[in-house]
């Protein structure tokens, strides 16, 4: 896994040149936005169980056959595996967001995921739909645009966040979710 600093060093080393001023400016920006990045990761991690369970519930509401006898979320052990996998994907998205680099997501989560799910008979369309719901929920938490009407009064939770616009971090996180969707499709 490479963070922004390691990536700059590796890039400069491969071209046998010092780190250029453009890279230094990128790193300064990365550090300046550090509290926002940490807040974004915290917003996802603190709400992970709700994000995942809501995504799986939403996926099942759209395809109730998944919880019927013979469905991919029946019996309970398959449902538990589905929830576990959703939490794993979400955890690796937060790792990528924290590092500002998708290599950990690609190497440790997405490498071979489609083939594994195909071998296990996991329906790709349902899995993709769950990831899409996690993406929407996570970006709402990052930008602090989640509302009580969307979450319900028992699950509603807004986080204290650093001042400023977090739309670029939400976009970055959305890109990581899109990588997951692409790997499963």
From TrEMBL:
Question: Topology with regard to the membrane?
Answer: Peripheral membrane protein
Q: Name the Gene3D superfamilies on file.
A: Phycocyanins (1.10.490.20)
Localization annotation:
Cellular thylakoid membrane
Gene Ontology MF terms in the entry: hydrolase activity
Q: Which InterPro entries match?
A: Globin-like_sf, Phycobilisome_asu/bsu, Phycobilisome_asu/bsu_sf
Q: Which residues carry this modification: N4-methylasparagine?
A: 72
This protein's GO cellular component annotations are:
phycobilisome; plasma membrane-derived thylakoid membrane
Per the record, the GO terms for biological process are: photosynthesis
The name this protein goes by in its record: Bleomycin hydrolase
Organism of origin:
Zarconia navalis LEGE 11467
């Amino acid at each position: 896994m490479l963070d922004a600093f390691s990536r700059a060093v590796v890039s400069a080393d491969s071209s046998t040149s010092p780190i250029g001023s453009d890279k230094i400016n990128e790193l300064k920006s990365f550090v300046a936005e550090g509290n926002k990045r940490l807040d974004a990761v915290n917003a996802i991690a603190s709400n992970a169980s709700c994000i995942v369970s809501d995504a799986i519930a939403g996926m099942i509401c759209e395809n109730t056959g998944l919880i019927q006898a013979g469905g991919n979320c029946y019996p309970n052990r398959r449902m538990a595996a589905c929830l576990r996998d959703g939490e794993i994907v979400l955890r690796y998205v937060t790792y990528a967001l924290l590092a500002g680099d998708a290599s950990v997501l690609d190497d440790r989560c997405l490498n071979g995921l489609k083939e594994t799910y195909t071998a296990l008979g996991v329906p790709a369309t349902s899995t993709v739909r769950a990831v899409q719901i996690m993406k929407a929920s996570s970006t709402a938490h990052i930008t602090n645009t989640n509302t009580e009407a969307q979450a319900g009064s028992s699950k509603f939770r807004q986080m204290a966040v650093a001042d400023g616009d977090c739309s670029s971090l939400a976009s970055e996180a959305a890109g990581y979710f899109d990588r997951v969707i692409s790997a499963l499709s």
